[in-house]
Design goal:
The chain is α+β, with helices and mostly antiparallel strands. The protein has ten helices and nine strands. The strands form three sheets. It has a four-stranded antiparallel beta sheet. A three-stranded antiparallel beta sheet has the order 4-9-6, with helices on one face. Strands 1-2 form a two-stranded antiparallel sheet. Strand 1 (about 45) and strand 2 (about 50) form a beta hairpin. The chain is elongated and about 80 Å long. The termini are far apart.
């Protein structure tokens, strides 16, 4: 019986306890965000020494992107020469990578913030114009991976159609940092925002509240996206092994084939 008098603390009333708990809960989001910031400033042990945690995440992310690039070639999403060009440009400081900027508040469109574009022919411009500039443009989005477009106009039209955006709603400024740093920084900023939002739901706290908090701290969204892309590429690679008659068959026939 925790309400027994023997459990009472002299001088500590229920009001004081409630006030203390309220203050802790009110500062929980800020405290968690500060802890995350300190973590990413910290270091981790690696073979041969130590490495900044953010840098370590960037290195692992680069490996995932390179693996996805290789699988994209096998799946037929990219030519081998295009993939080799992306790798070549990533190893230099050449400003051949661009980000996507949109004012849309739509969640689907917001996912474009982690996307990037590779200027295969390196036109040396500060911003991609959605005209008919040729030379090859390689788009990367978390949902669709690497895709090749022959012109900037073709790419721009595909982006606007896919995310239901007006033509003047999207711009493509050059990246001022490495493409991997950009990709990681976007996800870390999303982590900071998500941790504040999750901590602010104490009044609606459910059984899975702590589970969701742990997922945010562990950057589960980043891993889930990579796994999703892997599964899609694996399916595309299997389709490449299909006989020609099956490749040309309708969707119903292909689904039936997979079921069998």
């Amino acid at each position: 019986d925790t309400q027994s008098d023997k459990f009472k603390v002299q001088g500590l009333g229920i009001i004081a306890v409630e006030d203390a708990m309220t203050k802790v809960l009110q500062s929980l989001g800020t405290d968690l965000r500060s802890a995350l910031d300190e973590h990413w400033k910290g270091h981790t042990a690696v073979p041969g020494g130590v490495l900044n945690n953010r840098t370590a995440l960037q290195e692992e992310t680069a490996k995932v992107l390179m693996a996805e690039l290789s699988l994209g070639v096998i799946a037929g999403a990219l030519k081998e020469t295009d993939a080799a060009r992306v790798v070549e440009l990533m190893k230099t400081d050449t400003p051949a990578f661009f980000r996507m900027k949109t004012g849309s508040a739509d969640p689907a469109a917001k996912s474009l913030s982690a996307s990037f574009i590779v200027d295969r022919s390196f036109h040396s411009v500060a911003e991609i114009k959605p005209d008919n500039t040729l030379g090859g443009w390689i788009l990367y989005t978390p949902d669709n991976g690497f895709e090749y477009f022959s012109s900037s106009a073709q790419m721009h039209q595909a982006i606007c159609t896919r995310f239901s955006l007006p033509s003047n709603e999207v711009t493509y400024p050059v990246l001022s940092k490495s493409v991997v740093a950009h990709y990681v920084d976007v996800h870390l900023q999303e982590q900071r925002t998500a941790i504040i939002a999750q901590a602010g739901t104490q009044a609606e706290r459910r059984q899975d509240w702590l589970v969701n908090l742990e997922k945010i701290q562990q950057l589960a969204a980043l891993g889930d996206t990579a796994q999703q892309r892997y599964e899609l590429l694996k399916a595309a690679i299997k389709r490449n092994e299909w006989p020609e008659w099956l490749k040309k068959a309708g969707g119903d026939v292909q689904r039936r084939y997979l079921e069998l």
